[in-house]
Amino acid sequence: MKPQRLEAALGYGFGRPELLRQALTHRSFGSPHNERLEFLGDAVLNCAVAGYLHQHFAELKEGELSRLRASLVRQETLAEIARNLQLGDFLQLGEGELKSGGSRRPSILADALEAIIGAIYVDAGFDAARSVIELLYQPAMNRIDPTDAGKDPKTALQEILQGRHLPLPRYGLLATHGEAHVQEFEVECVIPDLGIRSTGTGSSRRIAEQQAAQRAIAEIKP
C-alpha cells in the first residue's frame, strides 16, 4: 500500500518519509524498527490526551481524569483506531509474524500507532503530533460521558442493563487465533432482551470482552 493513503488518513504529510517507514517496521522485519519511536509516541500520546481532558472536562477530579486517560490510551482503543486506519495493510512484518496474523494483532497495531505518533513528533514537534492525535481520537472523545468517569465498558454495560431492569449480558468465547504465545481471542457479548450480539477481539479474553461490551453499548438505543 502506498504511504500517501495513510498520510491522507492521518491528515499529516511527513517531511522525512523514512520516519514513517521506520514507524511501520516491526522488529521481526529488521532494523531500523519502530520500538524507540513507540516509546516516544507513548509519552506524547499520554501528554496530549491528558491536556485535552484537562481542558474539556474541568468538572472532573484528578482520579477521574486519570481513569479516562487510561481508557483512551489503552491497547484496545489504540488498536481500534489503527484498524479504522487500515494500518495493518501498511506494516512491514517478518515472515513468521505474517503467517501468524501479526497485521491483525492488537498489540502490534497499537504499538505501530504509537510509533507513528512518535515519528510525527520527531518530524515536526509536539503541536503537529497533538493535532493528529486529536483528529484520530475525535470519535472516542465525542463518546466520553463524564458521569462514567472512565468506567470500563463491561461495568458501564452492566449498569445500563441494571438501570433498565434487564438481565446481565452473556459472554462467550468464539475462537482463538495464533500460536500459544501470541494468541488472539474472539469473544461475543449477547443481550437477548435487546437483540444485541456484538463481538470483540484481543490478546486476552478480558480485553476481547471489554471490546465486545463497548460495541454492545454503541448498539443500545437511548
Per DSSP E runs of 2 or more residues, the count of β-strands stands at: 3
For CATH, the homologous superfamily of the largest domain is named as: Ribonuclease III domain
What value does the average pLDDT take?
A: 90
Q: Provide the domain count.
A: 2
Encode the helix/strand succession as letters: HHHHHHHHHEEEH
CATH architecture title of the largest domain: Orthogonal Bundle
What is the makeup of the main sheet?
3 strands, antiparallel
**Could you estimate the helical fraction of the residues in percent?**
55-70%
Query: How would the global form be characterised?
Result: globular
**Helix run count:** 10
Classify the secondary structure makeup into a structural class. mainly alpha
Strand order of the largest sheet: 1-2-3
Describe this structure in words.
- By secondary structure, this protein is mainly alpha-helical.
- It has 2 domains: 3-142, Ribonuclease III domain (Ribonuclease iii, N-terminal Endonuclease Domain, Chain A, Orthogonal Bundle); 153-219, Double Stranded RNA Binding Domain.
- The protein is built from 10 helices and 3 strands, in the order H-H-H-H-H-H-H-H-H-E-E-E-H.
- The protein has helices at 3-10, 17-23, 35-56, 62-73, 75-84, 95-99, 106-124, 126-142, 153-163, 205-219, and strands spanning 170-177, 184-191, 196-202.
- A 3-stranded antiparallel β-sheet has the order 1-2-3.
- A hairpin with a 6-residue loop joins strand 1 (170-177) and strand 2 (184-191).
- Helix 7 (106-124) crosses helix 8 and helix 9 crosses helix 10 (205-219).
- The N and C termini lie far apart (40 Å).
- The relative contact order is 0.14.
